[in-house]
């Protein structure tokens, strides 16, 4: 479904050139989950933004990005908008940046649901409430009329997940979806995502700096270091026979508790 070949991204400015992604390749099949792990600055987000066509004009991109047999590299902005959100959903680190502060949660969900489900406005409102219930927003039938600032950060991320899922994407890109949350809320959101992805055949690309988090929930794990994909394999392969020194560093960094 998604095939990325030799993806390369550079940012050039008057002062310097940043070679953020250096010819990485991978595929994701329907229902499959690919985890991308690597330290901050290794190119994880830039590669995800390239897939979604959201890189700034200062980026020079080369390589192939095919989604369901169609090259995303050739798409116009207009065509990209038909795919982004609808076919490829995404959740980012900071839910507040993705939610519009001047509209209620309902206002933001209902119109999208009307379009994606082909239903009337009252039906869309009921569906929006269903999705909010799914992500465990209590009193969803009332809270749907609240504004984003009336929710905690963890609740906002739940709302983002509800909005994204309401578009029924074939592929979900989650870029450090719990990084802005406290540890307890992180666990709750991860459990929720596991529950919701188990219910669908949605493919997922899960980006994290935490090897344990991606290994627990992904079929395949890719390790990125300084813009390069240094290793790719099943979590078992990666843990039992890491081929790369950097991967070993990540494994050694996972806390082991002994009593
Ligand atoms: N818009 C941009 N302009 C210039 N450099 C950028 C831009 N976005 C990201 N970079 C650089 O690209 C590299 C990879 O960044 P990023 O993909 O965000 O890393 P991460 O793995 O933490 O998600 C970093 O060196 C970052 O500073
Ligand atoms: Mg990032």
Which parts are unreliable, with pLDDT below 50 for 5 consecutive residues or more?
none
User: What is the CATH architecture term of the largest domain?
Assistant: 3-Layer(aba) Sandwich
Determine the fraction of residues in helical runs and give it as a percent range.
25-40%
Sheet with the most strands: spatial strand order: 6-7-8-3-9-10
What summary fits the major beta sheet? 6 strands, mixed
Ligands in the model, by name, code or SMILES, are:
adenosine-5'-diphosphate, magnesium ion
What is the strand and helix layout of this fold?
Layout: E1 2-12, E2 17-28, E3 33-37, H1 44-51, E4 59-67, E5 70-71, H2 77-83, E6 88-91, H3 95-98, H4 105-117, H5 121-134, H6 140-143, H7 153-166, E7 171-175, H8 183-199, E8 203-208, H9 211-217, E9 220-225, E10 228-233, H10 235-240, H11 245-253
Parallel strand pairs: 3-8, 3-9, 6-7, 7-8
Antiparallel strand pairs: 1-2, 1-4, 4-5, 9-10
Helix pairs in contact: 4-5, 5-7, 7-8
Adenosine-5'-diphosphate binds at residues 11, 18, 20, 38, 40-46, 56, 58.
């Amino acid at each position: 479904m998604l095939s990325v070949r030799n993806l390369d991204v550079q940012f050039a400015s008057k002062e310097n050139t940043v070679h953020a992604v250096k010819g990485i390749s991978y595929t994701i099949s329907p229902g499959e989950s690919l985890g991308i792990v690597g330290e901050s600055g290794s190119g994880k987000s830039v590669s995800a933004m390239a897939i979604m066509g959201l890189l700034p004009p200062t980026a020079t991109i080369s390589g192939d990005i095919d989604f369901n047999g169609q090259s995303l590299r050739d798409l116009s902005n207009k065509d990209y908008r038909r795919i982004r959100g609808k076919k490829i959903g995404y959740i980012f680190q900071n839910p507040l940046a993705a939610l519009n502060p001047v509209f209620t949660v309902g206002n933001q969900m209902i119109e999208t649901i009307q379009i994606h489900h082909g239903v009337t406005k009252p039906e869309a409102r009921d569906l929006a409430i269903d999705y909010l219930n799914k992500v465990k927003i209590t009193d969803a039938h009332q809270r749907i009329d609240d504004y984003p600032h009336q929710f905690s950060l963890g609740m906002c991320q739940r709302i983002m997940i509800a909005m994204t899922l309401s578009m029924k994407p074939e592929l979900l890109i989650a870029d450090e979806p719990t990084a802005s949350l406290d540890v307890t809320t992180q666990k709750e959101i991860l459990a929720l995502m596991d529950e919701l992805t188990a219910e669908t055949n949605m493919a997922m690309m899960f980006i994290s700096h935490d090897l344990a988090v991606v290994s627990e929930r992904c079929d395949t794990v890719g390790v990125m270091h300084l813009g390069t994909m240094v290793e790719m394999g099943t979590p078992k392969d990666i843990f039992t026979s890491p081929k790369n020194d950097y991967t070993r560093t990540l494994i050694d960094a996972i806390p082991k508790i002994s009593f």
